[in-house]
Description:
The protein is α/β, with parallel strands linked by helices. It has helices at 20-34, 51-60, 88-93, 104-109, 114-126, 139-143, 147-161, 164-169, 188-205, 207-212, 223-230, 247-256, and strands spanning 9-13, 41-45, 67-71, 98-101, 130-135, 171-174, 214-218, 237-240. It has an eight-stranded parallel β-barrel with strand order 1-2-3-4-5-6-7-8, surrounded by six helices. Helix 1 packs parallel to helix 2.
Amino acid sequence: MIQDPRKPCIVGNWKMHGSRDMITKLVVEIVAGSASITDIEIVLCPPLVYLSFVENELREKKCKDHIQVGAQNVYCEQEGAYTGEISPLMLSDIGCHYVILGHSERRQFFAEDDNLIARKFIAAYHAALTPILCVGETALEREQGKTFEVVSRQMQAVFELAPLEALQKAIVAYEPVWAIGTGLTATPDQAEEVHSYLRSWIAKKYAKLANRMRILYGGSVKAENAKGLFAKANIDGALVGGASLSPKDFLNICENAVVRV
Length: 261
Ligand code: PGA
């Protein structure tokens, strides 16, 4: 039997929440509570201004072997006159290893299109970051039966530009827009349907990669629904928004991650 090499990954996306005080407490509790949770990758994505601070805390507490930091966004150039932007090399430089790309809030509120996201993906790869590529349909697109069409288009833009080595490093997150921050979670079956579609879509291009690529689910993941989602064969972890701000809930989600051997 071929060993399943997909290590579960739980990403906490803190979005634009927090303060030094609140984040200090959050990190202390997550570090303490995750000591016994082994064999999974935990990634904390604080707002950018706190990224270095969180990275420092994790390093001082010597837990960077199982908890890493990630950014919520990055620019597609490494350097230059781009006032207000942050480059992938800068993230790498401060000990950040992951970056969320193409989150629906970036697509919706900041007009990020498929091409820009693909360019960010390549730039992140060149700076040795692991891109966490978000794809997902809106409620209307789902109603119109366009879910597969939308996620394929979002994936295709990246697969067209990215070399295989870049894709091998990446993580995909299926995040139905209608489930983000709404309390409406996709049922395990609804999520699995899209995850398995995505894996077969990848397999048509790169069979081996399809087996290895981690596909996380995101959209109102909570302690109560994590177990059911993680029981599905193609769900390799979660991208958690709201619940990642509560150490108890976040740790509970981490505890439910299924290590497949
Ligand atoms: P949510 O957010 O868990 O609050 O729905 C998920 C996300 O936006 O990544």
